[in-house]
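Weekly modeling sync, notes
Attendees: AB, CL, MP (scribe)

Item 1: holo prediction request
CL wants a bound-state model with adenosine monophosphate before deciding which constructs to order. AB pointed out that an apo prediction alone won't tell us much about the pocket. Agreed to run with the ligand included and paste results into these notes for async review.

Input as submitted:
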Amino acid sequence: MADVNAVPTPGFDSFGLHADILRAIAEQGYTQPTPIQAQAIPVVLSGRDVMGAAQTGTGKTASFSLPIIQRLLPDANTSASPARHPVRALILTPTRELADQVADNVRAYAAHTPLRNTVVFGGVDMNPQKDALRRGVEILIATPGRLLDHVEQKTVNLSQVKMLVLDEADRMLDMGFLPDLQRILNLLPKQRQTLLFSATFSNEIKKLASSYLTNPLTIEVARRNATADKVEQVVYEVAEDDKRAAVVQILKERDLKQVIVFVNSKVGASRLARQLEREGVVTAAIHGDKSQNERMQALEAFKQGGIQALVATDVAARGLDISDLPGVINYDLPYNPEDYVHRIGRTGRAGASGEAISLCAPDERKQIVEIEKLIKRELKRGELVLERRSRPRDDRSERGERSDRFDRSDRSERHGRHDGLRAGRSGGSVAPRRVRPEDEFFYKPYEPSPSTSDAQRDDRSSQESGVPTSFGGLPDKAPKRQVAALLAGFPRKASH
Ligand code: AMP
């Protein structure tokens, strides 16, 4: 697979960015633009609309934030009058966490300019947000639902927006935000620059783009799959009741210092977190039923390395700026095969290697088939010999709760509103839509790398030789990796 990082890229100083922005970039420790930045920054600076195929982890936030700041600098002023600080750039994101992360970045990049920015998302008190909006901000980062709450309460005026970013647009559609997006877009001036970022260019995304973008330039960069050849993927067939014991054993035997454990439901996430805690694994859960503060605290603790296993649902984990994570475990296989791609992209990033371990109960085999169809390759099967099974006492209570894996209401984690949007405001609830991948992106993601083939050979030989390994699918190494560092939490390296 072509190494896009090998292509010489211009330095940040070649874009004509203001010295105050270059200073902030240097303070972040960025030395070279990432591929998406190298391509997008000049185009955004030129004022053209952009359709960017890039995901979290590629540096896409800076690719739109830096040129936005540059383009807004002529309007920057130090006046105390709110009227002198209208919202000029609006950045919409699907989740609170992503909004918060984008806001952190924008704050850092604009630190030496008089430009003001704030973030609004649901699940937290509106009043501090109202105060910030009343004082005036040039750059507003928001989730759609909470933004509409502010629109309704007339605490925000969008009539002077000249730059709009739809970040992770595919996720916004997937989560049923289309009606809200349409409402917001209709409130914005027609004359504006629009930047749309999405992991996939499905028909829905193309339709959105053709309605709201003008002659956009499409920019595609190294997708997650470009780094995913560093990810060792393996599937263990495990009885549903044994999955918890399997997670504990995997953490121990693989010496995985930190993992995200993905589950499909909010109830399942809380339950598994409790059970892992009982097994002595320091764990936290993040999902849509947790308050914003709880989610932030869990994330912060994970960033600081105080938590070994972060049990998360797809929605809660979406867009989190997590890199160098030694592994992810799919406790439940995702309903939507695209989520598999997003999940395993949490590991093996920034050139690091990672392990993506999937636990497949017999009734989940179909999901594996779907995933393999999507990624166009067969996943390696490993053999997991459990040292001990889950305790029977827990098995009983498990069984009583089992049905929640497929509980409709619980599945609202994926499709429901996540930022405090009231039901019915946008003409009733929106039927969840499964976005079918239409583009190349998902059709050639995981080309087996030579290292993977080696691992497969190791797998076979260890099984044949009868070597007592409980992890037939992976070379039996104890990875000596740095505890997962979140780029947001530690000094950044030029890692793209
Ligand atoms: P993003 O894809 O925007 O979520 O960015 C992922 C991470 O990469 C963030 O922690 C950024 O701070 C970091 N990052 C962005 N641009 C660069 C760069 N040019 N060099 C090093 N790190 C970067």
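Recorded for review: The pocket of adenosine monophosphate is lined by residues 30, 32-34, 37, 56-62, 321, 487-488, 492, 494-496 (CB under 6 Å).
Action items: CL to compare against the apo run; MP to circulate these notes.
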